Each structure stands twice: as C-alpha cells, then as structure tokens.
Fold each of these.
Amino acid sequence: MPAIADEETVPTFAELGLPPVLVSALARQGIEAPFPIQAAAIPDVMSGRDVLGRGKTGSGKTLAFGLPLLARLSGRKAAPKRPLALILVPTRELAQQVQTNLEPLGRGLGLRFKTVIGQTSMFKQIDALRRGVEVLVATPGRLKDLMRQGACDLSDVEIAVLDEADHMADMGFLPDVTDILDAAQPGGQRLLFSATLDKDVDVLVRRYLNEPVTHAIGPVDESVDTMDHHLLLVAPKEKGAITAEIANREGRTILFARTKHGVDRLAKQLTQAGVRAAGLHGGKSQGLRTRTLAEFREGSISVLVATDVAARGIHVDDVTLVMHVDPPADHKDYMHRAGRTARAGERGTVVTLVLPHQVRSTSAMTRRAGINAPRTRVTTGDAELVKLTGARQPSGIPIEEPLIPERPARREGGRGRPGARRGRGPRTFDREGGNRRRDGEGGRGEHRSFSSGERRGGPRTGGGSHGNRRGASFGGDRRTARTS
Ligand SMILES: Nc1ncnc2c1ncn2[C@@H]1O[C@H](COP(=O)(O)OP(=O)(O)OP(=O)(O)O)[C@@H](O)[C@H]1O
Ligand SMILES: [Mg+2]
C-alpha cells in the first residue's frame, strides 16, 4: 500500500531536493518537515513535470507548489518586463498572502517578487516589472491590463501556477485565464492546485497540461479530520440574536454571509450589540479590505464577517470557529468557507445556521461535502449552544469608534481625485470569491460586467492515502447543479 509507505517514511525537505538555503529558511520559520501534499508534489515539480495537486484546506498547498518553484528558479534573473514564473490566484487578498509567504523564502535565492492586483498602484507594478521580477503573483484582470499596455510580457514564463484552479476555471474567469496561459512560454511547466480539484478544471488540463502527474491526498469528499461540523436549527425570529451570541464567543471567528449588503448589515448589527466585528467584501476599497484583514490577523477585531471573497485560500492563524450565517451555494463553497478553520492540523468548529425551510437543502449539501454534521435545535441562551460554540450574551453596548477607519483613497497613476471613486464601483479586477450567486454578489453577471479593458464594476499526520495517478482525469467529485 503506497499510502502507508509514504506516511511511514516522511522525507525531509532536503531529501525532496530543495536547496540548503531554502531548507534553513524554512527551519527559521519553524517549518521542519513536509506535509503529505508537499512530500508528494515537490519532487515532481522539481523534475519539471506538470502537476495537478489536490490537498484538503489548510494542508500546505502553497509551499507544495511554491518551494519547488523557488528552487527551480534559484539564482536566475528575469529580463525587464519578462517574469520567469507566474502564480495566478482568484482574489487580491490571496495574492498578497501568497507573496507574503513565498517572498521571504525566495529572497535567499536572489528572486524578486511583485504582486499585480487591482486597486493598487499600477505605476509601482509597471516600475517593478521594468526593473525585473522573477516571480509574479497576480489576479487575472490587472495582469491582463499590464499585458495590454506592454508593461508585462509573459513569453519567458517557464512555470505557471493556478492556485484555486477549479475556481479559476469557473466560467467567469476562464477567458482571462486562457489568454494569460496562451501568452506564457509554450511548453512551459503548469501546476494546478486546489482543495477541490475536480472536473471543472478539465478544460484547462486538456488544453495546457502535458502528461500531468496527479497528487490527490485523500478521497475527494473526505473532510478535514480536525474539524467538527454542526447544523444549528434556529427559528427565524431568533437568528439575529443567536448569530450575535455565537459571534461574541471568545476566539477568532469568521462569519460568512451571502451578499455584500448582508455582510454590511450583519457587521453593523454586531458592533451595535458590542461585538468587535468588521465586514469584508468585494464592494469595499482595496485599502479597507487589506486593513480589515490585517486588523483581524492582529486581533483588534475578533469577528470577520465576509462574503466568499474570503473563502478561498485565506489563512489566518487561530480561527477557531467558522459560521455559515447564510448557507453556501454548494458543497464546494461549504468546504472552502469551512476550511478557514482547522488548518495545518489545528482543531476547529464549523456551524451552519439553518432555518426551517433550509433543512433539506443544507443536509443534502453536507452529505455531498462528505461530512457528518449533527443537527441541534438551539434557542438563545441555550446551554447546548454554549457548549457547541462558546456563545455568550453580547454586552449590548454599541461600539462607537470606527474599528477599521476608512482612509481617503490615494491617487493612482495620476487619475482620479483623492477620496473619489470613479465609475459604478471600485475597480475589481479579481472576482468575489467564486460565487454563483443569485443577487449579483460575485455572480456571473458581475463577472461579465468587466470589460476586457478598463474594468469596473492538515494536517501534519492525517493526510490519509495519497494517490499518485498519472494522467489527468477528474470526474470523481459530485457537484450540485449551479444556480445560473
Ligand atoms: N510543512 C509544514 N510545516 C508546518 N506548517 C506548515 C507546513 N506547510 C504549510 N504550513 C502552514 O500551514 C498553513 C496552511 O497552509 P496553506 O495556506 O498553504 O494551505 P492550503 O492547502 O493552501 O489551504 P487552502 O486550500 O485553504 O488554500 C500555513 O500557515 C502554512 O504556513
Ligand atoms: Mg491555498
């Protein structure tokens, strides 16, 4: 049984072929031994193979593609405007996070990074590219803008990574993604990673990958084993109060709501009730989005209320509870939202508030996600609610100070007035995190409103088995029908 053999003999990072300077940089961060997806994928990426990698949320996929990418480029120099590697991700927050994780490791190898995302200084991005960038981390929209302007030429890109690949393959992303991959070096190495790598990526696999190796850690529908799931049956009139009690628990908590408006309303209700909460969604300025996530990471706010823009890939230490205030669109979204807790072998709880008319659909969804989520009927102040979530009655004293102060927008590239926003909304080059929503929050309608020019608009031990199939077939995952 190869799976058992793999788990028994965990190789070291050095044995996987990573250069000593990288191994010591990892050790300085306390990262001593590879996680299963890393042990599985790194040697193949190092040897230049195309790789499809599926590992559960929080299982360390960033380093699984990032470390060998850095090692392969070690000491190389990019020509002006011509990066050597590209990591494409669906959201700006994820781009910033990937850069934050990998850049310090790449520095010791002489590699220069730049993040290319919307609503940040295009001038600085152009300038960095002109000086030379080996590793570009990007969301598709801004990258395409820079390509169009002649500020970035992808023809030297030898390694292209799609993180959250199934999401990137989603209809709204596909045209930009294929344009970008078409512009990369023909025959270059391609790496596709996600926790839910399924048949959605087939189109990309067929077109761009050459005899890929598949590394899939655990069955498609196996959930993270350090994660507890509960369906909380609530009466409609109590939903608000129960949400506030759970949000007021001790510890870092993420609440997911379906719409931008829902996020704003909920964040406001919570601060009015005395809970240090702030909202994150694609309708806010990038500065505010970045500061909100930073404040949450630093702990000055304890509750992040978000749309699915925060569902994919985002890592914040010690998030101990995720609550679906509104049910996710499908089981994949459930898994990604839930995966913001119980990361890297830590424990975490995921609760879903279920109204009477949502019981059937929610149970069907959790079955599809392959999780066992007991149902519990709860009321406000309920002992069972306290036991499951640590719920506490909020103080009821409104928080008056602005938790995340809005700063005036800075001038970008000489366009626009400070503080003023042009067009119908912030320029969102990336998309709300993968939603096929019914009200336009990140739904396909919103995706399509972007014109192609100026757009507006693990587990340490528990990897389970790891299959190493040659070939590229993903048919195993079952999907719910999409709403649009
Ligand atoms: N070998 C390792 N040893 C210890 N910690 C690690 C190791 N590899 C990764 N980590 C940590 O695990 C956490 C999760 O990693 P990462 O964000 O790459 O997960 P992921 O698989 O990409 O999850 P998602 O599917 O949600 O994107 C990070 O904090 C990372 O630093
Ligand atoms: Mg990730």
Amino acid sequence: MRRPITHDQRLKKLRGGRARDDAAYDRGRRAKCPALSSAARIRGSARWKAVRAEKRRRDPLCQMHEARGATVEASSVDHIKPLATHPELAFVMSNLMSLCEPCHAKKSAQERMAR
Ligand SMILES: [Zn+2]
C-alpha cells in the first residue's frame, strides 16, 4: 500500500524547483512585516478562495445585520479573530463571518483602533 503523502510533500512536488526560491522570497517579506505578509499569502491562496466560497454558500447574509434582525446580502467573508494575529484560524469555519461592506468596514476600523 502506498503511504499517503503529507501536504508539504505534495506542495514540494507541485512547485518543483521553485520551492526554494519561494521560501527565500517569503523569508525576505516576513522580515519586513511578518503578520501582514503571511495574511496576504493566505488571502491569495486557492485554499482561502475555496473556504470563502463555501462560507458564502452557507451564510449568504450579513451576520452582523442578521444579529439585529435585518436581512442584507453579504459581500465579503471576515475573520472574527483577525488573520494578522490568528493565522492558524485562517481556514476555520467557526472563525469566519459573512458581512456586508459597511459592516466589514466598521469591524476593520475597530480592529485597527484596537491594535
Ligand atoms: Zn451588515
């Protein structure tokens, strides 16, 4: 029986010779602003796009509006615990919230002030 390969091994296989260059590039970026660059990498990933699409399919309405009994279509998916401080929760459904643009802007502004 073939042993299943790990996620890392599959990544290496997919990226081939580029893996080392990418790692060096990431190290350079992380040195400048560690939390932000890893958040940007997550946001650009195919995995995040798939998780975000799944969340919007499950919760098409803005959950902050919904909590107040209002029905507004969501336009984005937000991390309840921010990516910058909780990258390990990036793909955890229970850490995601569907939001409309005004609610998303409000929450992001509050997070910036809290920092
Ligand atoms: Zn809203």
